[in-house]
Amino acid sequence: MSQTSPEQRPGSTFAWSEDWLAAIVGLALIALVLAGVIPDWLVP
Questions:
Q1: Rg (CA), the chain
Q2: What secondary structure letter does DSSP report for 40?
Q3: Which residues are listed as membrane-spanning (predicted)?
């Protein structure tokens, strides 16, 4: 057996970060619209 650990792909973790960031931003925009902080016509 080899003593080296398997290499991880450099792009695999970055894509998940982008997806989670987009989900969090979307939920934050929905929360701000529901709270009345920003008008609903401003967010498409």
A1: 19
A2: G
A3: 20-43
